[in-house]
Amino acid sequence: MVLCADDVGKMTSLNQRAKGQWRIPARAGKVVRANAADVERNGHRMTGTDIKNQGGRATERFEMVMPLRWSDQDINGHINNARIVTLMEEARVQWLNIKAAADGLDSFRCPKVVASLNVEYKMPVNYGDELTLVLDISRVGNGSFTVRHTGNRQGTTVFTGTTVVVPLDPESNHPRKLTAEERAYLSRFAG
Description:
By secondary structure, the protein is an alpha+beta fold. 22% of the residues lie in helices and 37% in strands. The longest helix is centred in the middle third of the chain and has 22 residues, at 81-102. The model is unreliable at 1-54 (pLDDT under 50).
């Protein structure tokens, strides 16, 4: 087991919590039951959701409701464009560092770098609106992969983006190849 995170204690408690079931509040006062495939952390709601892609095969995506902070706003009352990039990063880190580890893949807790980042803003995000980020994989290469981010507010896509992520060897801090386990995990989310 490889642990590269700074806070191993949080990982232990998260693994213990992920073994059972617990309740996560959902929209409109409903409650959904979560299991080991679902993770709740720092007030964020995260799930692994089965969806059907256009080819008809089942794939997964990672969804997370992002809490917006008063300080995220710009002078126009919109969530600042740079803060959107930070929210994308927070969701990606929760998925790859926390949920993947809870699913048994600890190697993504090791260092990674962003090689490329692209965001297309479709409409403003206002403070107070619930923002859901949906993440999946658009490409898996030998030494990198591309995460696709979709920001949804009240059922409408407000931004899309992609991030090319390169894993690093924790000892040399140089790029490394994806392992077979990492490629298999990411392929579950390829859409």
